[in-house]
């Protein structure tokens, strides 16, 4: 039924690249709200090496993933097949938040397509790579990407992005610190 892998091999890379959506789950250290976020845009996810993945963290109304990762590092990324053979792939690991001023950001950003509103890059060191059947996951067809997030972020100037991040991204819904005042500044970000 399910299998555990010691690395992300070419077959798993191909599966990951074929999925139009993936899901990211994190949780606070104690209590609080578990967060589960769907992610789109195929050029926002990259397999860095056999046990490391990364994705672009774009502007949004919450900052749960950043807050939880900074608090305890725990993260799971899940892909599931909505077409073709049934399969669910989970990447369990320890995440780190890389913001534009951090060393390594400029090298990592080259792995992704261009998007306005990049807050950070989430890098995940995979500790467990496992699949399961996905027999109950429905077949669904993919029509097209929604462009609304990029369009929304593209309409905001630097001051508007800074104000939005300061209002919405300074702490999680449970009051866990998110982006610092310096990190809400989009100057120099990938767009």
UniProtKB/TrEMBL annotation:
Alphabetical list of Gene3D superfamilies matching this protein: Electron Transport, Fmn-binding Protein, Chain A
InterPro entries (UniProt xref): Pyridox_Oxase_N (IPR011576), Split_barrel_FMN-bd (IPR012349)
Every Pyridoxamine 5'-phosphate oxidase N-terminal domain range: 8-129
Region (Disordered): 160-191
Pfam families named in the record: PNPOx_N
Identification of the protein by name: Pyridoxamine 5'-phosphate oxidase
């Amino acid at each position: 039924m399910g299998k555990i892998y010691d690395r992300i091999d070419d077959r798993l890379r191909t599966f990951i690249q074929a999925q139009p959506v993936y899901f990211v789950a994190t949780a606070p250290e104690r209590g609080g709200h578990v967060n589960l976020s769907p992610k789109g845009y195929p050029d926002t996810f990259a397999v860095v090496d056999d046990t490391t993945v990364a994705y672009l963290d774009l502007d949004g109304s919450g900052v749960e993933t950043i807050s939880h990762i900074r608090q305890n590092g725990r993260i799971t990324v899940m892909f599931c097949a909505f077409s073709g053979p049934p399969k669910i792939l989970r990447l369990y690991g320890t995440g780190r938040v890389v913001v534009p001023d951090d060393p390594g950001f400029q090298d990592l950003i080259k792995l992704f397509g261009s998007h306005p509103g990049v807050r950070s890059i989430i890098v995940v060191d995979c500790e467990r790579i496992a699949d399961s059947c996905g027999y109950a996951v429905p077949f669904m067809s993919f029509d097209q990407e929604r462009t609304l997030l990029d369009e929304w972020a593209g309409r905001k100037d630097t001051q508007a992005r800074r104000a939005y991040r300061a209002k919405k991204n300074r702490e999680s819904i449970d009051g866990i610190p998110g982006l610092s005042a310096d990190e809400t500044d989009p100057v120099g970000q990938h767009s």
